[in-house]
Amino acid sequence: METNQLLQGQDASTPATTIPRKPVHQPQKSATQTDQPVDTSMESSNADEEKNDRQRKKKPSPVGSIGWTTEVIASIVAIVSFAVEIWVLRRYEGQPQTAWPYSTITLNGFVALLSTITRSSLMLVVASALSQGKWLHFARQKKQKLRDLHLFDQASRGVWGSLELLCRLMPVHLASLGALLVILGIAMDTISQQLLSVDLRTVSHRSPDAKYPRSEYYNGTSLPIVTVLDFPMMAALYRGMFDSNVTDITAPCKTGNCTWPILPSLAVCGECTNRTDEIQFVDVGYGVQSRLPDGFTAEFSGVGMHLTVLRSEPIVDKDSNYTGYIYRSTTRANGTTNRLPIAHFEVMGVPPISYSDEKELLASVLAWECGLWFCVQAYNVSTEGGVQHRETIDTWTETTAPDSGPRINFTSIPPHFNVQPGVVFSVYNRTLQTMQGVTSELLNGSVMSMPDYTDNDQFQSMYNHVTHLDSWVKGVARSLSQTLQLSYPASNASDEHYAGVIFQDEFYIHVHWPWITFPCAIIVATLLYLVVVVWQTRRSYVGTWKDSILAILVAKIDDEMKPAAAENIDRQDESLVKALGAYKVNLLNERGEWEFKL
Questions:
Q1: What is the rounded distance in angstroms from the CA atom of residue 368 to the CA atom of residue 310?
Q2: Domain coordinates of the chain in residue numbers?
Q3: Strand order in 426-428's β-sheet?
Q4: For the segment 301-314, what is each residue's pLDDT rounded down to a tens digit?
Q5: DSSP conformation letters of 392-459
Q6: How far is CA 193 from the centre of its chain?
Q7: Kindly report the CA angle at 310 between 304 and 314, in degrees rounded to 5?
Q8: Cis peptide before 314 (omega within 30 of 0)
Q9: How far, CA to CA in Å, does 294 sit from each of 275, 319, 323, 346?
Q10: What pLDDT digit, counting tens, does each position of 187-208 carry?
Q11: What is the pTM of this model?
């Protein structure tokens, strides 16, 4: 009873009272048993190791541990900003430089901003993982040098510390990956600048403004009785006769480089054939008459004051039985005609030079058969460097018979003329008759040299070109064609197909996709590094302390290191690292207290 009262009233600081105990009976040893000394130091060492192993396996209290929420959020921010960067690059890849709609920031600047956000978020994750790595490093069974604590801390702060840690722990330590990510991370901003460039290219697009003038239907008059040709075509006739330099139509091309599809258009064709070798000279008594096989004659010698130097006369096909005409219009059995004539005429003349005698004059006489007719021409037009080129790749003349109705249509046009379905090329019958009547009057006359006399000025122009009358007639045809195409254009509905393609130099956004593999690899490696560190932390007995200063403050150092620490604490940081860095320690939890244990 007294003993129990003493035990219950004893203060914790009072030494316990010794109570006599009954001696315990010890069994007797056998004859083979002998007393041997016991190695108590070995038993103590094994006990300490087992205790340390139990401490390593023991999970710490959640009190004082820090979660990974910040790192998870930073990872999400990095992934989202990188995804936005990829989307922006794909959205504007190949687009004109002007496609970027914002003036406050350039596309390159926006990509650099996203890359900076990605890099900063990733480096936050890596720094935290490196900081956590120092606790995991000292929680291993193998003791580590205390200077590693300093290296880990420096590595989480920047590139130089990461280089030092990398040299210390290479090649297989997990922290080496973190240090390498810090080093490589500084290149992300530079890499982002390599992703984009603004290059120059030539682009093309169809422009409704680049239309080459075309014509599909000609109706030059609406009067029931046709006697006068419409003014545009009348002016074109005279212009062709007096202007030997009728140039092609120039289509609008604002960039100076354009192409067009094959362009079919109603036109006027014309040419002359030299028939001088068919001339027969007949002495008619008062002079020598020049005669062609069809009966066309002209007199270029004789007596008196009137000397003919040029004679032009229309050929009326239906009134002539001569079959040797080259430009004669004939109607086929199927009701089509090979040519829709505007004018068919013959010319004989001598060049405008001086002749010494009659023999020399007669030797210079030239004969031509000429024609003008409606046709459909296919043009290949292009403009390069501001200079337009037009090539007539083919010509078509087959039409319905002139007496088949009010409109004469071109038929069976080949596919390579690029005629759109439903488009018909035609000439109004009354207009054709008017043009035939007008040209018959204009091309029937002569030029006399003594005294100077001409029926009309157009014959003087013809006389000046008598040696190359083919080019003169082609000039008239070209002038009529241009007036047709400018004054009687095709409808907009059928002309849209023939709009030109404009070529122009353009600055565009070029994305160099191979460079994107670098930040992508950094992101993947960072996430893997974080996952492994989190997994190791969960398996370890240390808390999620990362770069917590409080965790450093509550962790003690082994008593044997305290004198060296006290001696160098008031010196520079390098001295403290040199004094304590060589000690190899483990981080252990001794009776609820964390300690770097030797």
A1: 11
A2: 69-197+511-597, 214-488
A3: 217-218, 426-428, 407-409
A4: 654 445 678 888 89
A5: EEEEE--EE-TTSSSEEEB----GGG-PPTT---EEEHHHHHHHHHHHHHHT-EEEETTTTEESSHHH
A6: 20
A7: 125
A8: no
A9: 12, 12, 9, 10
A10: 888 888 889 999 999 888 888 7
A11: 0.63
